[in-house]
């Protein structure tokens, strides 16, 4: 169980670190300020939430395997709640949450969701 979580955290951190640097570089080259779209905060929040959700799912996979889908969906709900609490007020402060701001949250969200899903499917298929 701990090995799965540590392995997932390592892969997740490496992928999101690489994606974050790439995302930062692209925004800078397009003339946007990554700090204005809370880019670093977005990647950190998504890493922490994905890891927390993964650990919960990994712990419950043997005890409550029939409820894993609901827990997984609840984790996505928590991520969206984090978006609306931590990011949306800043993004919408000017009355318009534009695509650059949305992508600052959605890119790390999508990458972490894909990694969570892929890793959990692999683990569940083994057991």
Explain what you see.
The protein has one domain (2-126). It is built from 4 helices and no strands. The protein has helices at 2-29, 39-60, 68-91, 99-126. It is elongated and about 50 Å long.
Number of structurally distinct domains: 1
Query: What percentage of amino acids are in beta strands?
Result: under 5%
- Mean pLDDT across the residues is 88
Q: What is the oligomeric state here?
A: single chain
Compute the CA-based radius of gyration.
Answer: 16 Å
The major sheet is characterized as: none
Question: Approximately how much helix is present in the residues?
Answer: over 70%
Record keyword descriptors for this entry:
mainly alpha; 127 residues; elongated; single chain
Which helices and strands appear, and what pairs or packs with what?
Elements: H1 2-29, H2 39-60, H3 68-91, H4 99-126
Could you write a compact summary of the structure shown?
By secondary structure, the protein is an all-alpha fold.
């Amino acid at each position: 169980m701990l090995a799965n979580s540590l392995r997932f955290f390592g892969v997740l951190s490496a992928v999101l670190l690489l994606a974050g640097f790439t995302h930062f570089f692209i925004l800078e080259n397009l003339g946007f300020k990554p700090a204005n779209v809370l880019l670093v905060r977005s990647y950190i929040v998504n890493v922490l939430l994905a890891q927390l959700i993964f650990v919960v799912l990994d712990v419950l996979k043997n005890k409550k395997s029939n409820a894993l889908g609901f827990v997984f969906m609840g984790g996505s709900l928590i991520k969206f709640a984090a978006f609306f609490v931590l990011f949306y007020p800043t993004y919408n402060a000017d009355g318009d949450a534009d695509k650059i701001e949305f992508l600052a949250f959605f890119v790390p969200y999508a990458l972490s969701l894909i990694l969570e899903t892929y890793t959990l499917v692999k683990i569940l298929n083994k057991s």
